[in-house]
Input
Amino acid sequence: MTTLNPDVAITEDLIAAHGLTPDEYARFQRLIGNREPTFTELGIVSAMWNEHCSYKSSKKWLRTLPTEGERVIEGPGENAGVVDIGDGQAVVFKMESHNHPSYIEPYQGAATGVGGILRDVFTMGARPIAAMNALRFGAPEHPKTKHLVSGVVAGVGGYGNAFGVPTVGGEVEFHPRYNGNCLVNAFAAGIVQTDAIFRSEARGVGLPVVYLGAKTGRDGVGGATMASAEFDDTIEDKRPTVQVGDPFTEKCLLEACLELMATGAVIAIQDMGAAGLTCSAVEMGAKGNLGIRLDLDKVPVRETNMTAYEMMLSESQERMLMVLDPGKRAAAEAVFRKWNLDFATVGETTDTLRFEIWHLGEKVADLPIKELGDEAPEYDRPWVAPAPREPLEFSPPADSDIADALLTLLSAPNGASRRWVYEQYDTLVRGHTLATPGGDAGIVRVEESGKSLAFSVDVTPRYVEADPFEGGKHAVAECWRNLCAVGALPLAATDNLNFGNPERPEIMGGFVRAIEGVGEACRALDFPIVSGNVSLYNETDGSGILPTPAIAGVGLLNPGAHRVGAAFTEADNAVMILGGNTLWGTHLGQSMLLRDVFDLEDGQPPKIDLAAERRAGDAVRALIAKGLAKSVHDVSDGGIALAVAEMAMAGNLGATLSAATGDALAAWFGEDQARYIVEVAPTDRDAVESLATEHGISTEMIGTTGGDQLKLGNARAISLGDAKEAFERWFPTYMGEP
Amino acid sequence: MALAVIQFPGSNRDSDMVEALAHVTGTKPHLVWHAETSLPAGIEAVVLPGGFSYGDYLRCGAIAARAPVMTEVAKRAQQGLPVIGVCNGFQILIEAGLLPGALMRNANLRFVCKTVDLEVQSNRSRFLEGFDVGTRWACPVAHGDGNYVCSADMLARLQDTDSIALTYASGSNPNGSVANIAGITNEAGNVLGMMPHPENISLPHQPTQVGARIFEGLLHAAA
Output
């Protein structure tokens, strides 16, 4: 073989700077015949073997998640999961984090997070129809928080709005544990015909490997490696590792890819995401049992004198790599030219199983392609299960006022309306949005078939922190519940597991137990995980984030099916509570009330009884399907009080509720699970009660809709105007607006 | 009825518009690529849809206004062909010189997507002939650059020529537009530009179908 040019000396420091341990480096040397790698090869292996790309700390545990189901066409392993929705259509979806880049450069970090997830979806041949995002920031009073909120929200909107995908749901939460690491988890879903799903597996020897999209620059070189390390005081130096997004090019790339796919020219396709050209080429070759030879002199570049190392590690956005049928070259070129996108044949498939890279007439890398992925290190990191929290010992002050407590929750940073955020997102583009953010789940109609899909993303990190197993179960249960609450049949989910440094056994323990909880809930609720992403090392100076396993789920509504919102619809209807176990609240441990009113984050989170959860969700879907529910809202953060208040404010219609049973604070604000509030016409009460009995759940009428006040039992009545003022005020005020 | 929806790279409410028009007129409109130099034969009206043509680079609508097809659109507009531009389409009409004034960044500098109340100020154009003057209707907006500005003289002229077609109802102005302007026509009344999205309130599954009445006006325009 040609001698590889040793352009840069491979020192121990250089190896360490690439995030490789001495053992990992030795392992790599064994794979390449015990020679010293070139600088480009070192870059390639560091990109393939970092945590972000290799999942080396998490793989062992991810394998325990349920990923199969009757409707699952493609589970984890491709760009996104694919789930059958009938009539020859499937929904393609995934969620992915862009945490580290967003903290360093919030607008571009968030924008390219959205761009990356959209690309994952349309790489599979699907047209994106919905997006969501789960955002977490530090304490509102932390000096960086406002800047991050402003930049991240603008970035999410800036990309998604211009690309043309409606953002139909999401979460925004504040907690001091995110002071040094914000979380930006972006979700996208698209629709594909089941007989036209595209994959990354290359087929055929001697076929052209074609580059399409934006030119390659130096932006993002080493980004994936950066995202696999903790932050420290050198963080500002990392700004150049953040990519810059161009949603216009992405929109053109979407249309070009879909047109190209329709010509039959595409044999394999992979977007260039983390570690760009490296990961995409290795993925296509390794999956197809083929080698890939790349000629970097052919790569469209936007900067001069780029080295092979830089080109292989660039994370420039809006780029695709594909293997094309040479017989359809003319048709393909016509599409590229129509959309004015750069394209070039940059290599070919080979039968050598080598990843060979040529630049300026020299071979700069020659690596075994399958081993780069298959032989990546895998760790069974030591872990310790976190010690269980003490049960809550809390005696509410005798003068606790239910109305005041509710107003406090409504106006608290985590309870207040997110209108300031979601009004910056185009929630309507494409014209098929049936439910916009602010309810339990966003709903988007699927063109032609008349079906619709519901979307929700959920996790309550304070629960996970206090009990990772129950917290993991809860994230799944709440997402599932939100889909049921609009009348949708939950189909499947994607997870985005955000944690701290896995090399610390207590962090790893939280990770392991949370995955076990997620897995148990997914199995019990028939809600498989079909795609996902792990983001570790969310730590700054040794202090980690709250463990945050976000779960985004997709549910199906058939054509003509009843669906409901969370807004009260009509006066004089019965307000009923439905529950798998308890009806009135009892559990205040780790509750929102405790945190926002009493400044305590104590006790154990509520236990999730998955059988009860299932009974309650099945009952609610049945109620909605029969047209017996006028509106539905799940009971979660803030208990019955907050749920009813949200329904009243959304519907601009008050309610009078009967006095609670048991301790009033716990009854109104307890966060016991598997519960829903349902608005029912008085004539339907009996039908609802018998349906609840059939499903083995309890129900009780707790009040009546009507008027312009919210009256919770014996508490002072709150005018809807005051409630809305409290609810809508916090965010704009915080962001410094009149 | 033969309608043309112009498609620019970066248009993203083109599919919304095509569906709304097909529903209202019973015929699928022609999608005309921006690089064309002529319109299909027999075209009875032209629609410029919303989106981010050319990524909104340079200025919103500035590059699209100079796309090859716009020469023909401008010529036909001057001959009286009905032309409607929505959102980015409105921006393009202004940049093409078919409507006066400018659309600046929203006053609060943020993109805004919400439902606002509109008020019909003039039903002189075919598009709005189905509405009584003073009619209010709720309509979504979704834009970052919808803040209509013009000189005091131009504003007076718009008023004198009854060219202010739609305003945001009092308290509903989402972007800081002068005189709450949401949409204007040219003096001849055959060209309408508006920021709000009637195509998103036209189909049976959408919250209302009031927007369809604007497109129904096109049917009459062609008659």
